[in-house]
Amino acid sequence: MKNSARILSLFLALLLLLSVLSACSDKPAEETKEQPKSSGGEPAPGETTPEAEEEQILTYYDRVPTEDYDGWKLNIANDGISTEYFSGFTSEELTGDVFFDDLYNRQIAVQDRYNVVIEENNNGSVTLVKSSVTSGSGDVGFAYVIAASCMGVISQNYVLPISDLPVIDMTMPYWDQGAQKTLKLFDKMYYGYLDISWDHYESMAVMFYNGFLLTNNGISQSPYDLTREGKWTLDQMYSMMQTVAKDADGDGTMKIGKDIFGWSGREFEYLPSLYSSNLRLVNYDEAQETYVMDVTQDQVMEVGDWMHKIILDKTLSIPGRNDDTRNLFKAGECLFYSRLLGDFRNLRDKEDDYGIIAFPALEENTDGMVYVQNPYAILVPSDCQDTARIGTLLEALASYTYDNVLDDYISKTVIGKGVRDRESAELLRHYITVRAYDLCYAFNNMTPITSYGVGVTNGNYASAQKRSEKLFVKTNEKCMDWLRGE
Question: What is each CA distance from 468 to 63, 334, 454, 464, in whole angstroms?
Fold first, then answer.
């Protein structure tokens, strides 16, 4: 009996304990931690797993509002498709190529989500914009216009400031932040550089470098290593070139196919290392309330003198944009090859170990930028009939690209065979956050660039400046008046 009583007492105690625990779990909803929701919007039952937490993170594309545009046709005005770089927006079918299939999937996803039809017209972007605005038809959703032609349509009222569009959020990572630093004019942004298109990637002025030539010449620190340490400078590059360049046949002259060069390719009007050094030929003058040129800034001239030594020394370099300079690099007979990033397509059959690097800065630890040469920009015609609609579609296309396409593009840009490629991919991810765009191309006024080229060649920057500065201001005068609203 005593044992039975003891067992009964224990059983009752257990029931009491269970009732207390149950009461503790029945707290009001506001006192309990809110359960995260799954990606489908349903409460996640029980404890949240790391996998479930990852699923709950919204993509950038998810954050763009969903709308129904009732079958509206988004007509993209473009120039003819280039064979040298990728300038298109659409892909007609799945082909098995990862990048082009991504573009096809992007088009289908946005069409289905917003009930639109996306079409691309390659009969000349400027012509199509002018025709649409003149007729008031609203035929063009947005246009893809090369930088040097943009100001012509901007200053004639054919284009809206893209920064004035509702819905868009230009702080998002799929909007080029460097463009907003270098191309904002009187607090307005007309040029759209965002992750819908690829020319502002393809037109980055970079250098490809030969890893084998570094190793074979005992150069222990690569341009990548020096970049990571903040020591990738013009003097370091020049020293590497001097170490590698050789008159292999000993005949006293440097010839393609016979000797080893330090540098070849495009000089890009000597601009890339200016931007790497955070320097500009054209700056805004607060006192004059206009943009002025100055090629006689001390550091600008110092960079120019380095460019003279690096590029114009025939014992070290061969400048040019023809196939000879590319083939020189592909043959392993040149350390640095300067070209637009899009030239990676012509190097994919190169078996040598190579990397991608930006032009060096004048000084160590410079928080510089990467120059983009005359890229196409997205412009919105001034006869746009629904700015919220076009803003939403720009956001949708760009955010989808950032979420789902960009990684595949970067993996196509580099070979993907070894360590050098992982290093290049890492740098490319950084470079695309610090791109710079030149105001001479934005204004379509090349006077400062021409003057700087004269100074680099003969060293007389002051004379070049004196001959050109008034011409630059005068030819820009009408453009400035329009931008100021006068």
Answer: 49, 36, 11, 6
Q: How would DSSP label each residue in 123-151?
A: S-HHHHHHHHHHHT----SEEEEEHHHHH
Give CA–CA dist 277/265, Å, rounded. Answer: 21
Q: What is the pTM of this model?
A: 0.86
Determine contact, residues 138/383, Cβ cutoff 8 Å: yes
The pairing of strands 205-210 and 354-357 is antiparallel
Strands 290-293 and 159-160: unpaired
d(CA 150, CA 145): 6
* Residues pairing with 282 in the sheet: 293
pLDDT at 411: 81
Query: Cα 41 to the chain's mean position, in Å?
Result: 35
Positions in the chain whose pLDDT score sits under 50: 1-48, 52, 54
Three-state SS letters, 213-245: HHHHCCCCCCHHHHHHCCCCEHHHHHHHHHHHC
Number of Cβ within 10 Å of residue 54's Cβ equals 9
Which residue in the block uniquely carries the two structure tokens 């110092």? 302
Distances in Å between the Cα of 261 and the Cα atoms of 145, 235, 314, 315 are 37, 17, 9, 8
Distances (CA, A) of 337 to 137, 319, 349, 436, 437: 47, 9, 15, 21, 21
Q: Which residue segments constitute the domains of the chain, with CATH numbers given?
A: 60-201+374-413 (3.40.190.10), 204-373+434-484 (3.40.190.10)
Calculate the alpha carbon distances from 23 to 16, 33, 47, 64 in Å.
Answer: 11, 17, 20, 43
> What pLDDT sits at residue 369?
98
